[in-house]
């Protein structure tokens, strides 16, 4: 009893169909057709893998750029925080910090109003 699989081909008959070269030619034509289909599928897979490789290189380039930008941003933020701490430690820094807080609050309020009523 033979179990049928979901393969798109049918097994070849194992018994010789006749002494003539016609059966050999039919098998040869079938092999050529199958080889051509396989060649087309291999070409499609090769094209797909090349496209995937190009996309991976492009994504890697973008990620490296983002990493560089984040490094620069963290440097700027570190410098800014150092200045803020130094300003807070100076005499009269509380008043300047209050002005800075109010300025930031007003800027965010203006941005919110602009975006809300746009």
Automatic annotation (TrEMBL):
InterPro entries tied to this protein: BET1_SNARE (IPR039899), T_SNARE_dom (IPR000727)
Domain T-SNARE coiled-coil homology: 25-87
Segments of this protein annotated with the region Disordered: 1-31
Main subcellular localisation: membrane
PROSITE patterns documented for this protein: T_SNARE
Membrane topology reported for the UniProt record: Single-pass type IV membrane protein; Single-pass membrane protein
Gene Ontology biological-process entries: protein transport; vesicle-mediated transport
Statement: the UniProt record of this protein carries the keyword RNA-binding: no
Transmembrane segments: 97-115
Subcellular localization(s) per the UniProt record: Endomembrane system; Endoplasmic reticulum membrane; Golgi apparatus, cis-Golgi network membrane
Keywords carried by this UniProt record: Coiled coil, Endoplasmic reticulum, ER-Golgi transport, Golgi apparatus, Membrane, Phosphoprotein, Protein transport, Transmembrane, Transmembrane helix, Transport
Source species, domain of life: Eukaryota
A Pfam cross-reference name: SNARE
GO CC, alphabetical: endoplasmic reticulum membrane; Golgi apparatus
Biased composition (Polar residues): 1-17
Subunit structure of this chain's protein: Interacts with SNARE complex members GOSR2, SEC22B and STX5. Interacts with LMAN1/ERGIC53. Interacts with STX17.
Family: Belongs to the BET1 family.
Known function: Required for vesicular transport from the ER to the Golgi complex. Functions as a SNARE involved in the docking process of ER-derived vesicles with the cis-Golgi membrane.
Protein's recorded name: BET1 homolog
UniProt organism field: Drosophila madeirensis (Fruit fly)
Biological classification of the source: Eukaryota, Metazoa, Ecdysozoa, Arthropoda, Hexapoda
